[in-house]
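Regression test case RT-17, inverse folding.

Input:
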């Protein structure tokens, strides 16, 4: 067993191991930002908001995740205290912790105060996410570890999601927003400590020459066709209508699940997602990315249609347990494609751009799914989502995934040489 683990473990050097630990801790902290989501949803539901209106609320709070390229540009062009990564890490994690502490201590939670401070908390975490991803792409592409690093990141997020599901379900059951925000606030502080210890940042060069080099790299990257094709492919994939908050309405109003059971279902899905992340780490280094994506789209269609059988506690547990892993493998394949498509020298900025597209498509999907649920009920949106997912097959030949992967391997070989 130890020898098998050693062969499958992609992190062979102390440097890659240090980065893997950093990414795991920071992404776990980001995953805890979702802890208040279920309590917020049930509180807003009881104030009379529909599923579509609650999805719109979360669209407001996720706005910082849609402008991530701005954070990449800022850190690339404007070093803070002489550094491009570490100084921003410290500032943004502190901002997230401050906003969370405010929500944990205020007496009441009006709609707009809740939206504003939760959005500010998201701003700090979204900026931190960009910095982490910049390190991931810059370090991962030369080592051929983008897929493995992202597996660690998302396994960490889903480990946090297990806690989010159980604790969030309990807090939603008791309508306890203050405790949810207090618990979520602890983890940006953990990220701050990790940045102090684990981020090894080189002091940025000052002067016009460094600015011109970065600007020239961005201009060259903007002309790369593959980046924009991948962006369109990712947006189409993520925009397939999904339930989002609407699923909680269905679970609560139709299936009569308790909030604690709903939280436990999220934990089951998270456990399955962690399994999927651990499967993807070695898979990403052994199977062609195009093959993984083509197969993943097909399995995702089946997984979406399986929600037609989501009719009670047993079927809910089975569906979340089986297709949590499938959803994770599919998600990591698309994120791996995004990392490999990023142009050299400006990997952080362009990965942030592609992740903004990913987040925008996901949020648009949830809003669309929420309003479809309001208008049509539970069953009709499921085949609509499955059909949209299947259409992604039509786009695969236009993306040239094999060419993108071959170019990444060539770049890695050049760096190694």
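Golden output:
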């Amino acid at each position: 067993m130890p020898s098998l683990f050693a062969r499958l473990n992609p992190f062979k050097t102390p440097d890659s191991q240090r980065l893997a630990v950093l990414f795991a801790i920071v992404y776990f902290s980001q995953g805890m930002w979702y802890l208040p989501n279920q309590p917020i949803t049930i509180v807003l539901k009881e104030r009379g908001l529909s599923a579509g209106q609650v999805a719109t609320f979360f669209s407001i709070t996720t706005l910082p995740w849609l402008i991530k390229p701005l954070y990449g540009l800022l850190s690339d062009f404007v070093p803070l205290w002489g550094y491009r990564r570490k100084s921003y890490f410290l500032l943004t994690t502190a901002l997230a912790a401050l906003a969370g502490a405010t929500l944990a201590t205020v007496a009441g939670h009006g709609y707009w105060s809740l939206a504003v401070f939760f959005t500010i908390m998201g701003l700090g975490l979204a900026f931190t996410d960009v910095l982490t991803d910049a390190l991931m792409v810059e370090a991962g592409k030369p080592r051929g570890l983008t897929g493995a690093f992202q597996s660690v990141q998302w396994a960490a997020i889903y480990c946090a999601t297990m806690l989010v599901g159980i604790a969030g379900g309990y807090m939603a059951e008791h309508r306890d927003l203050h405790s949810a925000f207090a618990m979520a606030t602890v983890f940006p502080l953990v990220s701050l400590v990790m940045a102090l210890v684990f981020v090894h940042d080189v002091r940025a060069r000052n002067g016009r020459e460094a600015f011109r080099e970065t600007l020239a790299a961005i201009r060259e990257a903007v002309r790369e066709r593959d980046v924009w094709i991948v962006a369109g492919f990712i947006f189409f994939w993520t925009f397939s209508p999904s339930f989002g908050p609407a699923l909680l309405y269905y679970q609560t109003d139709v299936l009569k699940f308790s909030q604690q059971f709903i939280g436990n279902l999220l934990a089951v899905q998270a456990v399955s997602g962690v399994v999927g992340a651990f499967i993807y780490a070695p898979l990403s280094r052994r199977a062609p990315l195009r093959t993984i994506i083509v197969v993943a789209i097909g399995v995702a269609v089946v997984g979406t249609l399986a929600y037609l059988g989501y009719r009670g506690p047993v079927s809910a547990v089975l569906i979340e347990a089986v297709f949590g892993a499938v959803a994770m493998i599919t998600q990591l394949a698309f994120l791996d494609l995004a990392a490999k498509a990023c142009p050299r020298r400006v990997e952080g900025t362009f990965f942030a751009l592609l992740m903004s597209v990913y987040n925008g498509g996901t949020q648009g999907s949830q809003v669309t799914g929420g309003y479809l649920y309001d208008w049509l009920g539970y069953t009709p949106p499921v085949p609509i989502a499955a059909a949209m997912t299947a259409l992604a097959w039509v786009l695969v030949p236009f993306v040239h995934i094999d060419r993108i992967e071959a170019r990444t391997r060539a770049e890695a070989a050049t760096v190694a040489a």
